[in-house]
Amino acid sequence: MVDVSYIRHDTKDNKEEALVTSPYLNYSPEVLPRRPEPEYIFLEGAGSKKRGRFEMCFIEIGAWYTVGATIGTARGLHHGMKIVARDKQTRTYNRTQLINNVLKHGGGVSNRFGTIFVYYSIFGIILEETRGDKYDIYNSIIAGTSAGLLYKSTSGLRNCGIGGLIGFGLTMMYNLISSKFTVIEKLKKTAIHPENR
Q1: Residues forming a β-bridge with 7
Q2: 120-174: per-residue pLDDT in tens?
Q3: Distance CA 69, CA 138 (A)
Q4: How far apart are CA 89 and CA 97, in angstroms?
Q5: Alpha-carbon span 193 to 187, nearest angstrom
Q6: What span, in angstroms and rounded, lies between the C-alpha atoms of 41 and 155?
Q7: Are 127 and 90 in contact (CB under 8 A)?
Q8: What does the alpha-carbon distance between residue 83 and residue 98 come to, in Å, rounded to a whole number?
Q9: CA atoms of 38 and 155, how far apart (whole Å)
């Protein structure tokens, strides 16, 4: 199936292009703009060596949701085993108790972790946009503190403050550990390749 819109005619001086109406699509190619270069659709951040904050937030949320589900499942299994050992009922009852506890605790903890990291990601993206594409320690600490405050905001002022302190402490710990590794990597590069300072 050919829908050739352009036919080339060679002349003495140069090549001319004559437009021909396509018999299959029934349109004149003069209507469409002609561009010599091909057009491509690029993803956000294409060509850059690292992903943007918006792309990374989906990975972080999914990863922490999975971590929460794993912790909740282990907690539910432990709690269900305690109930089974205490009640000493039939197999069907024991199985039901285990399944109920695993699903209840696994879902609850994973939803908590997922919600907190959605808040963290939203605050991180807002801070990055307002500060001009800067991804640094301050954005992370402010986003973690704000996420803790927002998550516990419905539990009263005291719990809200505790949530903010927990968020601040966790993000500070993460940034201290990650910046420690960054400093060690820079020292190694400087020691091994001193010309790349």
Answers
A1: 18
A2: 999 988 888 888 756 678 888 899 999 999 999 988 899 999 999 999 999 988 8
A3: 29
A4: 10
A5: 10
A6: 47
A7: no
A8: 8
A9: 57
Which of 39-43, 68-72, 134-138 tops mean pLDDT? 68-72
Neighbours of 154 (CB within 10 A): 8
- Asked whether 25 and 31 are in contact (CB, 8 A), the reply is no
Output the six-digit token pair for 167.
Answer: 């968020």
Residue entry with tokens 């949530």:
163
Domain boundaries, the chain: 52-121, 131-185
Going by the DSSP 8-state scheme, the letter that residue 195 receives in this structure is: G
State the DSSP string of 30-89: TSSPP-SS------TTTT-SS--HHHHHHHHHHHHHHHHHHHHHHHHHHHHHHHHHHH--
